[in-house]
Amino acid sequence: MEFSAKQIAEYIHGTIIGDEHATVHTFAKIEEGMPGALSFLSNPKYTHYIYTTQSSIVLVNKDFEPEQEVAATLIKVDNAYESLAKLMTLYEQSRPIRTGIDPLAYVAPTAKIGKDVYLAPFACVGDYAEIGDGTALHPHATVGSHAKVGSHCILYAHATVYHDCRIGNRCILHAGSVVGADGFGFAPTPEGFEKIPQIGIAVLEDDVEIGANTCIDRATMGATLLHKGVKLDNLIQVAHNVEIGSHTVIASQTGIAGSAKMGEWCMVGGQVGVAGHIKVGNHVTIGAQSGIPGNVKDNTTLMGYPAIDPKQFARSAAIYKKLPEMYTELGRLQKEIEELKQQLNK
Predict the structure, then answer these.
(1) CA distance 77 to 41
(2) Is residue 308 part of a domain?
(3) Residue in 152, 163, 240, 277 annotated catalytic
(4) N or C: which end of the chain has fewer CB within 10 A?
(5) Which residues pair with 345 in a beta bridge?
(6) Is a pLDDT exceeding 90 seen at residue 93?
(7) Omega cis (within 30) before 109
């Protein structure tokens, strides 16, 4: 499918600088541009590529002013990155949607399957499970008994929704993700650790996206709950009875311990650890590799382990690098003090 600069500019409310009849049929990074491709420029570090890119059209922010001639047609917009996202969404939606149940898929006789559903080979839908309209289950995706998956969801290969769990509308579960595995609950006994039955469920509200190999454990009792619009990266662990507020985004390898509550519109970097039974407020930003041992107030930014104010962390990090020299200097000073004491005692 091909689009002209004029069509694109009208869709994203942009201003054309160059040939309005220039056409594109694919996307490319600005440094890897090719004829017929659409690229974008939002990071100043990549500005030099705009003068050599082979892309036919480039989206730029309104304040961009070229310092030399640009061969590509430019479309100026308020936010080039957001406009690119809109265009890529349009491009994705223009692709043909597969429907139908493959003969190699398994659907329990008691399951309810909506309209225009796609079940790939070896997809599995358990007893009394429900699949909403327009939802797609790719190979080996599994929906357990009595579980419910809403409309227009995508479960990629080997994504698993355990029994009784609930998935909202327009959710995406990437390959290998697991919703509803048992929480890590064991009671110590003289003979070892005895498993505590995990009788709760996991619930994902609308527009939630779960990255590959990310796990959302079911609750011990009640529900592990991800509110509307939560986006999780790959390789994240969300423990039993955790609650994550709407539109919070969390990067890879983060672990959230049991019964922690995280607020709305939080941004969490990679490899963050959040302790159990604590409350993180709304609009909290947490830097990568931080440790959160206690409650966090709204509108807070933290970094480090244990997490502190980023400016304090930066100063502490600068001192940390000097610790070997400081330790040597401290030893020298202590030796001098001992020598002075001996001289005074004489």
Answers:
(1) 11
(2) no
(3) 240
(4) C
(5) none
(6) no
(7) no
